[in-house]
Fold:
Amino acid sequence: MIYDLISSVYDKINKDIDYSQWADFIEKIIGEQYFGGKPELILDLGCGTGKMTIELAKRGYDMTGVDYSPLMLDKARRAAERQLSENNILWLCQDMTSFELYGTVDVTVSCLDCINHLMSSGEVRECFELVHNYLSPNGLFIFDINGRKKFETVYGNNSYIMEDRKSFCTWQNYYNPKSKICDFYITLFRENENGMYDRYDEQQSEKMYTVKSIKNLLLKCGFEFIGAYSDFNFSVGTDEDERIYFAARCLK
Structure:
């Protein structure tokens, strides 16, 4: 599984992300749009190594983290044990299009372009319908996608190299503007206990979605569209932005 493969270098790939600032942005949306005071239960869908899950837990929210990668969740659990005095986070190893919760939540967040990993509008709709099902009435759905600019310029047909003390990762991209799919071919060399390096190869893909298509899918799944933003200052987001942040309300 791809994110099992790169779990050892995942946080280094995303080292420039300010999760505290991102959480501030999420809390601003909650403060302006949530009708029931401060929400208690938040789902972090596609939580990865738990950076946002833990950041929000530190702010007093009761968190559930869902991810499909067991190794990512293992890193998340260990990080929570180190960083939280009371670690009550519920971690679930499940798929974004078929997850099951024990009850409803007040807010669902999904960070770092998890939605782009759903390879068809049908899969996105399945995910949105589940989010809607498990949100309480007037609950909020806050997430982001990589926009067209990211696919065409940052991804494109570019290659990248990432390394740390015990691993070396090469990442080659191939973007097809007709299908709007970017394929990633990843090779990881990781040092084993004998000091030798094991090689792992994997392929993964992301699909580009427009702001209009995401908005239409939200409406079809029973959400009220609140807004699409290009930054944490609530500037209007368009397809020309690298990352676009969405907010929607669950209507029931």
Notes: The chain has a mean pLDDT of 91. The chain has two domains: 2-146+210-250, 150-207. The longest helix spans residues 19-33.
